[in-house]
Amino acid sequence: GGAKVSDKIQLIKNMLDKVDKMIVGGGMAYTFLKVNHGMKIGTSLYDEEGAKIVPEIMTLAAQKGVEIFLPVDFITSSKFGEDGKIGTATIESGIPDGMMGLDCGPKSNEAFAKVIMESKTII
User: Fold this and answer.
1) Residue 93 DSSP label
2) How far apart are CA 28 and CA 41, in angstroms?
3) Per-residue pLDDT tens digits for 97-109
């Protein structure tokens, strides 16, 4: 759990030797999406230190044949809490300024469910 890639870098690197598929979600996903896809992330969580490590993670994953799955659509809000303005976004549209990604959208949930259902072991 948590949003900082840099806090989980050693765990992610160690897991690359043990898995063939990895889902990166939650707050960490926005750092990966901004680095890998140049996606606009609005006011979503972003780990500047972790962003420096993302290319290394992606290279290691490719070398080890590990597929990394990231969300492709998002539920957004103008603030964290019940009274924010709710919206949606995709990788292509990006998350608008003043909005933050708070959850995966239905396409991401469907894709992640498929990965999970095809898996023999889940950590």
Assistant:
1) T
2) 12
3) 999 999 999 999 9
